[in-house]
């Protein structure tokens, strides 16, 4: 992407304190956007902001699984840059892997709450703000996962939420098109972030062997695609689910 293509835009990124969210903040800021780095872990979001510079970014504490927290984040976000974000990236996500027969209800609920309900709450709240302010050219980017198609053993909760994100994205793209808001999602493969750091080495080696590019992805390689989807250069891309996996299927 070319520098300055997002100048004048405000972006909200959830999960901004780590991995793909943090890399997305970096790339969107490089392309000229002002960035609201939102995370449940405020300290981590503040570290992201420290790296970007406080003139073009601010940190925001939000728990995406809580409607109340998301609601107050809208008010906070509007205060920060006097304008609703027109770029929203739903990168907050968690895993609680385990075999289905042994999966505690809490592990199912927690993953659902952040990955799918969180995507719903943030999308609904910030789309409303964009529509109320009559802002055009909005772009919402959701993080699904290639796991939505691979459906790995031990990931019933995670895989179901990430498949849900694909359907959710498509519905939102149909409902929001008339407001000038595009909604797309990305299915990353295995990306070298703290989320994947806890995956056993043997599993990672197997993934790398099956990946045509023979390596894990870097968070910036997802962030660049997010920046494209956020920019006017993708103006006719809507309701898409884009695999960014190095060819891993
Ligand atoms: P990560 O674990 O490095 O970062 C996730 C961030 O989300 C953390 O900063 C965490 O504090 C924040 N978070 C967790 N729960 C939250 C909540 N309730 N409210 C607000 N923030 C919350 O994860 P990573 O790797 O950056 O993943 C980002 C997204 O990409 C996730 O949705 C993940 O499922 C998805 N993804 C990641 C892949 C990977 O290989 N790393 C592959 C496919 C999808």
TrEMBL record:
GO biological process: fatty acid biosynthetic process
Top-rank taxon: Eukaryota
CDD domains referenced in this protein's UniProt entry, alphabetically: BKR_SDR_c
Keyword Transport: no
Xref: SUPFAM superfamilies: NAD(P)-binding Rossmann-fold domains
Pathway: Lipid metabolism; fatty acid biosynthesis
The Ketoreductase domain, residue ranges: 9-189
Coiled-coil stretches noted in the UniProt entry, renumbered to this chain: none
Pfam families documented for this protein: adh_short_C2
Keyword entries, A-Z: Oxidoreductase
Any GO MF annotation of the entry: quinone binding
Entry's family note: Belongs to the short-chain dehydrogenases/reductases (SDR) family.
The name this protein goes by in its record: (3R)-3-hydroxyacyl-CoA dehydrogenase
